[in-house]
Structure formats: structure tokens, C-alpha cells
């Protein structure tokens, strides 16, 4: 009786790849193919034999950062191998590590260390997206598009996607909502003209024209996330709430700031403080008290007695 071939052990992988292959719905379908191929591992592979990854989620690479990586590779070599799949003899396709791949070419290397994996197109997409999300400095919009592709092309629900990328459903949903913003705002997020915090505040405005107005004002006035949140909050409030006596005529951002100061004063004095202000930064502060003891308590806080 012929001896059974020992089952090859899996090569050590990063958390993203390991978790992905373990959970992949395609795993059973690929067991037969995997058993027929040589044991996976790390090999020195010629750069000329490696094709770029058609599923690469990153659309922009910083040239200066890429040059710095190339200089480091010239001196130190590649510390972390790239990951590829074998298409045929002398032909491989990149799964993850495109920055290292491109920088290695810039550094003049002929060969690079690479993990050789077996993967079908769906696994290629999953591995490329997940590895990039976990290991690369993708901007918020690139992450959102990656999540969208994983859900649409790999038939994943938000809960399943969250498990694969190590994020909860709320975080995944926050990224997905960014794709509902107008193209101009998405471009600003991609180009780092605004942050994800700005975008998350703006998306709470339903009217697209108003979204664009806030976006343009954010850039022109270099507004902080807090101030954008204040603009959105004021815009979403009803006209009756915006026309209170103590803040009538104030800029929405200024009104929000006055409200926050009033809350802090009330908390500090343990009393419902009233703070009124006008457009010229004039106003008054009222600190009510309910008894002589209460007055003394407030005076002690003011360090008057």
C-alpha cells in the first residue's frame, strides 16, 4: 500500500491573509487544486516575471514616498516579501505589496523575495483589498471603494466584511456612506482637502447644493471638523430653534460656540447659567441661585469670599 503524501503545512502569513484563507467560501473548492501544486513558500522571483495586480485598490502612489522606499530597499533590501500567485511557469501575478514591487524596480533590483500563493480571481480580489486595507495607508475614499468592491464582487454582507477587515459594522457603514457624497466632495476627500471627519459631518445634510456650499466654505475658511459639525447642526435645526432671543442674528458657528460655553459654565457652577451674546460679541452672563447658601457656594467658586 502506497504511503499517503503528508499534507503540506501552511506557510506563515500575515493576519489578513491567514484570516481570509481560513474563512474564504472558496476554500473547499480549491483544496483539490492546492494539493496538486508544490508547497507554497518564499522564493526569489525575477521582477520581469511578475505582473501587476489588476485588483489593486490603491489608485495613487506618492512619488516622493515611493522614492524614499526605493532608497531604503537599495540599502536594506526588502524586509517584508511581496505576495504573488503563480499563473504559469515563469509567470506570476502580484497579490499584495505593489509599493514594494514598484520601489524595487526603481531601486534597480532584478529579483525580489515573494510568497507564492494559489488563488482564484475572487480570492485575488479579497486578498488584495484586505491586505491593502490592513497594511497600506489608504485614504478614506479608497477604503470605502475597497469595502464596496468586497461587498459587491465577493457577495459579502456588512457583518462578514467587518469580520474580514477587523472592523465593526458601524465603522464599515461610516466608510460606505462617504460614497453617497457628490463627486466634488469625494474628490476633495481623495485629495486630502478635507478629512473623513469633515465628510461625515457634511453627509448629514440632505440637500446636495447645501452640502457643496459647506464643503466650499470648509476649504475657503479652513474650518475645523467641530465648526463644520456646528454649521450642519444649525442648518438642520428648525427656524424656530434658530431664532431664540439670546442668539438671534449670530453666525451658526458662533451660536454653537456660545451654546458650548454656556453648558460648561452651567456644569462648573452647578446651576443653569444663561449666556447671551450678539453679533458684536457683547452680552451678559446670568448665574441664578436659590438660597443664601447657594449664593455663598457660587461666591466661593468665584473665589470672592
Automatic annotation (TrEMBL):
TM spans (from-to): none
InterPro entries on file: Chromosome_partition/occlusion, HTH_ParB/Spo0J, ParB/RepB/Spo0J, ParB/Sulfiredoxin_sf, ParB_dimer_C, ParB_N
Region feature Disordered, mapped onto this chain: 1-30
SMART domains assigned: ParB
Keyword DNA-binding: yes
The organism's place on the tree of life at top rank: Bacteria
Keyword DNA-binding: yes
UniProt biased composition (Low complexity): 9-22
Keywords assigned by UniProt, alphabetized: Chromosome partition, DNA-binding
Domain annotation ParB-like N-terminal: ranges: 43-133
Family of the protein in this entry: Belongs to the ParB family.
Name recorded for this polypeptide: ParB/RepB/Spo0J family partition protein
Species of the source: Fontibacter flavus
Higher taxonomy: Bacteria, Pseudomonadati, Bacteroidota, Cytophagia, Cytophagales
